[in-house]
Amino acid sequence: MPRGPRCILPxxxxxxxxxxxxxxxxxxxxxxxxxxxxxxxxxxxENKVAIGAYCLMSNHFHLLLYPESKEGxxxxxxxxxxxxxxxxxxxxxxxxKLWENRYKLNIxxxxxxxxxxxxxxQNPVRAGMVRAAEEYQYxxxxxxxxxxRDEIVTKDIVKGKRDKYKEFFSENTPESRxxxxxxxxxxxQEKVFxxxxxxxxxxxxxxxFLGVRARGRPRKEGK
Length: 223
Known about the structure:
four-stranded antiparallel beta sheet, Alpha-Beta Plaits, alpha+beta
């Protein structure tokens, strides 16, 4: 099945997810993660792609990104994927594919960027690796929740509202759980995560269908 067109719109938040092939481990140790983050920072600066949130897990990574241009975004993702794949194959004396196909990408309604950052930063908690997100070293949670400095983060998504972000981050309501399920579906289908009006506006602009498709085959007429 042919790949659908990439939808990259400068000035808007983008959620990128990349997994290891067959969900295999891509970060074995601290040195691997530090190498990846060093090149992430380098490529972010060179290609003018700001980072609002990130998290490195053992077999995948998440990024909340703000590109200045489509071309810069493409170069950014290509560089971090290739340079890390070369590093991994060299260090572990292996050949072949490291990544699971191409990275997944979805545009985010700016009104929903905290939903994405919360999803990204709570990954280690959901995986049972830490009890609190800010305890995890390889994510933006500590900076976004507690303040301080993180050389990887170059986009302020908290915007002086840290108390509100912390309150939002700790929510465990039916609505927050519903948003999580919806986000997973949107991410899998590489669609837009946001309000209905925002999605319709982008569909008009791009001439693409950007909503989530219902599961299963379309119903036949008269059935």
